[in-house]
């Protein structure tokens, strides 16, 4: 298991590779970030960014989205996977925001997760990005890298990964580190073809060493 000290050294190298790492979803308001993040589940940020300009032009806020016809909403997001379910979830989320939270996003992880289509990862992303509330959202990239770097067991749950990262990374770096890990997973340590040969992190990575036989 990689210890905290060595993990932080590896993370520092990852930061140097992607100093400008940032959230890639396009949004203007916390509400729009929430909707875009719900839409991004099992979809690419690029695909979501293609659909949201027209969606947000018609339904820019909770009030307009709450009154939307679900079939019309589907028309704007049908290029995104699981769009039937997501259309229902975003309209219902807008309705619940109006009914329970005066149209504002709750700034609380547990309350946020009572909204349809909002799990722990989405709540963490939205609270961190919109309000700067510290959190580490564990998506497929963050989970894969954490397992390849061997800071958790291969069969660890997403929650285990989140807890370990929170224990290893100083709180003030949670939000930024989450972006660094995502960029590293998207553009270097990819699922199918990680570039281990030129990886600065190789000396800390059991998976890469075994893969290259070094
Ligand atoms: Fe990913 Fe390979 Fe680098 Fe390990 S050595 S972090 S598997 S790219």
Automatic annotation (TrEMBL):
Q: Which HAMAP family match?
A: Nth (MF_00942)
PANTHER family for this protein = A/G-SPECIFIC ADENINE GLYCOSYLASE/ENDONUCLEASE III (PTHR10359), ENDONUCLEASE III (PTHR10359:SF18)
Residues given in the record as [4Fe-4S] cluster binding sites: 189, 196, 199, 205
What keywords are assigned to this protein? 4Fe-4S, DNA damage, DNA repair, DNA-binding, Endonuclease, Glycosidase, Hydrolase, Iron, Iron-sulfur, Lyase, Metal-binding, Nuclease
Q: How is the cofactor bound?
A: Binds 1 [4Fe-4S] cluster.
The protein's matches in PROSITE patterns, at most eight in alphabetical order, are given as:
ENDONUCLEASE_III_2
Its source organism is Lactococcus nasutitermitis
Q: Which GO terms describe its molecular function?
A: class I DNA-(apurinic or apyrimidinic site) endonuclease activity
Q: What NCBIfam families does this protein's entry cite?
A: nth (TIGR01083)
One Pfam annotation reads EndIII_4Fe-2S
State what protein this is by name: Endonuclease III
Q: Which residues form the HhH-GPD domain?
A: 39-187
Reactions listed under catalytic activity = 2'-deoxyribonucleotide-(2'-deoxyribose 5'-phosphate)-2'-deoxyribonucleotide-DNA = a 3'-end 2'-deoxyribonucleotide-(2,3-dehydro-2,3-deoxyribose 5'-phosphate)-DNA + a 5'-end 5'-phospho-2'-deoxyribonucleoside-DNA + H(+)
Is Magnesium among the key words of this record?
A: no
Name what cofactor the protein needs. [4Fe-4S] cluster
Asked whether the keyword 4Fe-4S is assigned, the reply is yes
Q: Could you tell me the gene encoding this protein?
A: nth
The UniProt family comment states:
Belongs to the Nth/MutY family.
> InterPro entries, alphabetically?
DNA_glycosylase, Endonuclease-III-like_CS2, Endonuclease3_FeS-loop_motif, HhH-GPD_domain, HhH_base_excis_C, HhH_motif, Nth
């Amino acid at each position: 298991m990689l210890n905290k000290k060595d993990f932080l050294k590896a993370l520092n190298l990852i930061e140097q590779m992607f100093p400008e790492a940032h959230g890639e979803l396009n949004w203007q308001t916390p509400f729009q970030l929430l909707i875009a993040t719900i839409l991004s589940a099992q979809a690419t940020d690029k695909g979501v960014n293609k659909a949201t300009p027209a969606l947000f032009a018609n339904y820019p806020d909770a009030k307009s989205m709450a009154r939307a016809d679900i079939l019309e909403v589907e028309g704007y997001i049908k290029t995104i996977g699981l769009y039937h379910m997501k259309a229902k979830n975003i309209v219902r989320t807008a309705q619940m925001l109006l009914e329970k939270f005066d149209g504002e996003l709750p700034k609380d992880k547990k309350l946020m997760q009572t909204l349809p289509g909002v799990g722990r990862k989405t709540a963490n992303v939205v609270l961190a990005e919109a309000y700067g509330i510290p959190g580490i959202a564990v998506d497929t990239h963050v989970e894969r890298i954490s397992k390849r770097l061997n800071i958790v067991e291969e069969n660890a749950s997403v929650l285990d990964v989140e807890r370990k990262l929170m224990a290893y990374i100083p709180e003030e770096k949670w939000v930024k580190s989450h972006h660094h890990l995502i960029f590293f997973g998207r553009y270097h340590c990819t699922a199918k073809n990680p570039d281990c040969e030129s990886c600065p992190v190789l000396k800390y990575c059991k998976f890469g060493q075994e893969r290259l036989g070094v």
